[in-house]
Amino acid sequence: xxxxxxxxxxxxxxxxxxxxxxxxxxxxxxxxxxxxxxxxxxxxxxxxxxxxxxxxxxxxxxxxxxxxxxxxxxxxxxxxxxxxxxxxxxxxxxxxxxxxxxxxxxxxxxxxxxxxxxxxxxxxxxxxxxxxxxxxxxxxxxxxxxxxxxx
Amino acid sequence: xxxxxxxxxxxxxxxxxxxxxxxxxxxxxxxxxxxxxxxxxxxxxxxxxxxxxxxxxxxxxxxxxxxxxxxxxxxxxxxxxxxxxxxxxxxxxxxxxxxxxxxxxxxxxxxxxxxxxxxxxxxxxxxxxxxxxxxxxxxxxxxxxxxxxxx
Lengths: 151, 151
What we know:
mainly beta; six-stranded antiparallel beta barrel
């Protein structure tokens, strides 16, 4: 069972000025475009009715060597505990699939203009899923170290 | 660029009584276990501080032939418009990656007990990401056909 082979194909790519680590500061207000392959254009019909989408993408710049780490100290801050990689949203999970909730600004043909997409220019997009009430927890609990890491 | 090859490896598997389509009705209260491969046990350290997680999984029962459809009528209801596959949460997207927000009930060694996971027994798990405030939209807008499809 452990040897299941999973092969995926990008449905499109991210187009943004946020090109490389360090080249442009990541901000909550970054606007990007998701350009789907033309053959998938019809698959977007009606998507403009949603305000928010989940974008799943393949973080192609994460090296395989970065993905063997299982413990990490959030933001490299010594006063925070060492926690498991799955307890963080860091990029270096064993499977480098990115997940970001974005605001949909505009849909035109095979292109979506979105806000807050935390992905570099050229990132392969794997899927787009509209956000509905089932994706929204009523109340969440977070670890105390997570809250401290935000200050 | 379109020929990027993306190969992923399961980090673990879903264990649940929800074995096959039709064998047990999908309910919001289904409790499942995610059993990670032992080599990833350490990666879960501290995850019990979170109330909610996103689980990404590979929907291995979706046949390739099901994934070529680009338009769909929600719940096969004639009075609803035909919309694009990316405008729905149906399983037959081109890349069959499932995404479910679950409630974390318990963490013990390499196993998580979770509530609401919409995945069959034996489903390969690709990633686990804790839910935080950035994943929660303040207010969402949904298409009118989506709202009608819920009644």
